[in-house]
Amino acid sequence: MDLDYGMLDGRRPYYRFGDVDGDPLLVLPGLSDAFQRGEPNRSTAMALTGLFREFSDRDVWVVGRRKHLPVGSSTRDMAAAYATIIDEEDLWPADVIGVSMGGLVAQYLAADYPDYVGSVAIVSAGTRLGGHGEEAVKRWRNWAGKGKWSDVLADTEREAADGYEKTIAPPLIEFAGRFADFRPEVPADVVLSCTASLEHDSREVLDSITAPTLVAAGSADRLFPEPRIRELKDGIDDSTLALFTGVGHNLATSEPRKLNGIVKRFFEGFRGDGLYP
């Protein structure tokens, strides 16, 4: 398996793995991308190859958003930047997986740049945050502005995790925060990313999305509740819903094998019964 990682234009972290001769697959990460520290590294690269091992026959690019985001950056602006990458790296048409905030960006990427997108999987994202999700992201933005990084990280686990992680991880993070520095490399990027997520509302552009679209989410997602998920699905003509009963926002990491198997078959053109949970 080919493996490459680094910074595109010195500003945007990327990981590339799989078969470089395979069809391109672009993965857009969630809000946690803004919390990263340091340069892309081999250990993270190996973790990503494991997480996306179902796509080892594809030319997989996991590309983060640029560091030092311009003030006022919207999810639509971020989509435009990804379109530039697809063009410059000659990846089009690429299949796209957008997770959480990456799923918000993917909506505009598919709507505004249809020639660049083959099929798209929007994971754990809706047309806009639900009411509870808005309150949570506002809370994270406020704490990020005050440098309360362990509070932010602990609360994201409370809101997004499933099972024992939901109860065990937050107090461990809060305890570790007494001794460890969780400050991200570019703190302002967290605040700007939270604001972009809060302002996202894609309802008026959904009818512009012509790419076959899979909307995959957990029925117990506290940030993007089921009505917001179904609103997204219903607004896109060629769309399919995969709803994971009882699963929360961390679908991509709590059910990676089942999710990736569904996404892979969707990208291969299978739309029949039995594909979805």
What is the domain total for the residues? 1
Strand order of the largest sheet: 1-2-4-3-5-6-7-8
Strand content: 15-25%
Could you estimate the helical fraction of the residues in percent?
A: 40-55%
Main sheet overview: 8 strands, mixed
Query: CATH topology, which one?
Result: Rossmann fold
Cα shape: globular
- Poorly predicted runs are none
Q: Work out the helix count.
A: 10
CATH architecture: 3-Layer(aba) Sandwich
What does this structure look like?
This protein is of the alpha/beta class and 277 residues long. It has a single domain, classed as Rossmann fold (3-Layer(aba) Sandwich). 42% of the residues lie in helices and 18% in strands. It is built from ten helices and eight strands. The model has no long low-confidence stretch (mean pLDDT 94).
